[in-house]
Amino acid sequence: MTWISSLKSFGYRERFSIESVFKSHPHACLLIISSSMDTDRGSYLLKPFKDQGFKVTAISPDFEYIFRSTSAEAWFDGLKKGNVDPGEVPLGQNLSNLLRLAVLYKYGGIYLDTDVIVLKSFKSLRNVIGAQTMDVQTGNWSRLNNAVMIFDKNHPLLFKFIEDFAISFNGNKWGHNGPYLVSRVVSRVTDRPGFNFTVLPPLAFYPVGWNRIQSLFHGPIDAVHLRWLTAKLKHIRENSFGVHLWNKQSRRLKVEKGSILNRIMWDCCVFCRCSSSVSALQVLQKERGVKNHRDLC
Q1: Please, which residues bridge with residue 129 across strands?
Q2: Which pLDDT value is given to residue 293?
Q3: Which InterPro entries match (predicted)?
Q4: Distances (CA, A) of 277 to 17, 104, 116, 226, 230
Q5: What count of other Cβ atoms lies within 10 Å of the Cβ of residue 280?
Q6: Which residues share a beta bridge with 143?
Q7: pTM of the model
Q8: How many contiguous H segments (helices) and E segments (strands) does the chain have?
Q9: DSSP state of 241
Q10: Distance between CA atoms of residues 94 and 63, nearest Å
């Protein structure tokens, strides 16, 4: 994982993403690359996991070391010297896009965004990336996403991702150096020899699109809606490895009682009384005069 924001933004969703990782992978080693998390306060936020024996730590990124001997090295050097226009998109977002690629390339493993809820073990997955959308008529993917990536060390596709980032960087177009990057590179290398990877269908990690993500947060309004929620939840449980919450679109939404996400949180929680019921947390906060829900746990 990477976390480029301040600790004030590290809320229940991000914490729950970590919980879901360890619920499905209790023996995993989770590394959060983040300057703000690599602090005393960050250590305090991770302490409950460590106290339960889970292996998690945060480390500040050493960009020069991580990018060394890759195409990212020259790009980053140009950025420091003022020869690369960072553009209007927050630089931290684009550095996160590059950082995840470089770390995966050098060390291999699994990358997850902090707004991904893990539903089941990833042990069966190797060298995969997920499609965000599919063409209904052809059945072919139309866009990929980089919120979940699983690759071996030194995988050639990651090399191409980093190379494309350095060559075609554009800091003024949202997604150009992230989802659009992995989409255009994969479209170029598909069926070429030497690349061994799988594109999983949207249901694997993106069972609900960004424009419909609110449907996971709303509780049932009547019996018909309840049946739909139950069927949708069953479909996700059976077919998805994780759920991307699209925080940019859903950050202000509340998890309602009986919603799909509320029930998923009960399935995937580690500290269940603290994180699985957001409405309960809000009640406790008001009763006890606590401003931060983490102080309840």
Answers
A1: 149, 199
A2: 39
A3: A1-4-GlycosylTfrase_dom, GlycoTrfase_DXD_sugar-bd_CS, Nucleotide-diphossugar_trans, Put_A1-4-GlycosylTfrase_plant
A4: 14, 34, 18, 19, 18
A5: 15
A6: 133
A7: 0.88
A8: 13, 8
A9: S
A10: 13
User: Which one, of 22, 98, 11, lies nearest residue 278 by Cα?
Assistant: 11
pLDDT higher than threshold 60 for residue 12: yes
Q: Which of 140, 113, 155 has its CA nearest to residue 3?
A: 113
- Chain centre to alpha carbon of residue 47: 21
DSSP structure string for 40-72: HHHHHHHHHHHHTT-EEEEE---HHHHHTTSHH
Q: Alpha carbon of 67 to those of 8, 94, 106, 116, 171: distances in Å? A: 28, 14, 9, 26, 18
Cβ–Cβ under 8 Å, residues 24 and 51:
no
Q: Which amino acid type is present at position 185? A: V
Q: Residues with Cβ < 8 Å from 156, sequence gap 6 or more?
A: 194, 195
Tokens coding 235: 């479909």
The pLDDT score that the predictor gives to residue 274 is 58
Calpha distance 48→51 (Å, rounded):
5
State the pairing for strand pair 242-244/141-151. Answer: unpaired
**203-222 per-residue burial string, b: 16 or more CB within 10 A, e: under 16:** bbbbbbebeebeebbbbbee
Is the pLDDT assigned to residue 124 strictly greater than 90?
A: yes
Q: Residue 175, by phi and psi: left (phi above 0), alpha (psi -120 to 50) or beta?
A: left
Q: Which residues pair with 133 in a beta bridge?
A: 143
What's the average model confidence in pLDDT over 115-126? 96
* Domains present along the chain, CATH in parentheses: 1-60 (no CATH), 68-202 (3.90.550.20), 207-297 (no CATH)
DSSP letter at 182 equals H
Smallest Cα–Cα separation from 56: which of 71, 72, 43?
43
**pLDDT beyond 60 at 285:** no
d(CA 29, CA 10): 20
Q: Measured between alpha carbons, how far is 146 from 157 in angstroms, rounded to an integer?
A: 13
- What percent of the chain is modeled with pLDDT above 90? 84
